[in-house]
Amino acid sequence: MTKKPKILIIYTGGTIGMVKDYKTGALRAFDFSQISKKIPELQQLHCDIKTISFDDPIDSSNMNVDCYIEIAEIIAKNYKNFDGFVVLTGSDTMSYVSSAISFMFENLQKPVIFTGSQLPIGDLRTDAKENLITSIQIASTQEAGEPVLQEVGLYFEYKLYRANRTTKISAEQFEAFSSMNYPPLVESGVHLNFNYPLLLRSKNKEEKLIFRKKLNNNIAILKLFPGITEAVVRSYIHIKGLQGVILEAYGAGNAPTEPWFLKLLQEFIDNDIYIVNVTQCVGGSVILGHYETSANLKALGVIDGKDITTETALAKMMYLLGENLSKEDFKKYFETSLRGEISE
Ligand code: ASP
């Protein structure tokens, strides 16, 4: 028998850690250090499990940049002593937080898997057990003495996705996430099927883990809709300290060609506010210049988000703004895949 991998479970909150008080019907957080009492099956896994919990577990709607840093610091502090990490958060903002964590670590060579559930762990029909057990199993899968997964993933309902490719698509189905522009990394059936050619590998194995935590959230999303007024778009320019805007445009990155709109975008750029063009569609890519309605954006110097999701564009912007790059480098890095978040 090979050495047992050591897995750290980080519990931050969300439905997965809740139990129902059968007298009142209310959901409340339970003591996560008692997890193996709730799921005795965990003892059958070939790994040693330790748990660490936020002092005050939160609903993921309350996740902010400080929480991202807190999770990343726990991983960084324990990186040497553990072989893999399973992070439990609420599913509502899981794509955002897991994307942010993917950028905060460069040269990651161990698995960091985010998971949660739609029903609390104490519920009879819960999806929590399968999600948690399989996430731990994937995190502890090793070949030739090294973890098979060496990136940030998100596991839900029999599929492990690259975290920075995911979007929450359902508040009802157990299959709560989709990853339209990148196939699952692992599928769980009778066997765990790793999709080896899709897995991310650090370019230089000798390089140490680099942990960056200067996230800058002076950013906003501007979602276009037919009929959007000049006053709405103009109001963004007056946001104090704003440094970046994710422009959620139509289809392949198309936007109105009306002069007032283009003039305002020019004003953003003149005011040193970066604009990144992403698509409102759940799948597919921005192709700047493909239609006349995006050619103008390209000419203005709008950054091409390609097939990045909105959640990941936000995370990448927070990360790159924190690095104080020159304008040329900011655009270059945004348009390049750093953690497998865009297709090249
Ligand atoms: N509202 C919960 C949260 O995101 C839902 C969940 O846990 O899935 O924290």
In words, what does this structure look like?
The chain has an eight-stranded mixed sheet, sandwiched between helices. A four-stranded parallel sheet has the order 17-18-19-20, sandwiched between helices. The model has no long low-confidence stretch (mean pLDDT 94). 26% of the residues lie in helices and 21% in strands. The chain starts with 5 loop residues before the first strand and ends in a 10-residue tail after the last helix. With 344 residues, the chain is of the alpha/beta class. It is globular, with a radius of gyration of 21 Å. The structure holds aspartic acid. The site of aspartic acid has 9 residues, from loops.
Reconstruct the topology from this structure:
Layout: E1 6-11, E2 18-20, E3 27-29, H1 35-38, E4 48-53, H2 65-78, E5 84-88, H3 94-104, E6 105-106, E7 112-115, H4 128-139, E8 142-143, E9 146-147, E10 152-156, E11 159-162, E12 167-168, E13 177-178, E14 186-188, E15 192-194, E16 210-211, E17 219-223, H5 230-237, E18 244-249, H6 259-270, E19 274-279, H7 292-300, E20 303-304, H8 310-321, H9 327-334
Parallel strand pairs: 1-4, 1-5, 5-7, 7-10, 17-18, 18-19, 19-20
Antiparallel strand pairs: 2-3, 6-16, 8-9, 10-11, 11-14, 12-13, 14-15
Helix pairs in contact: 2-3, 3-8, 5-6
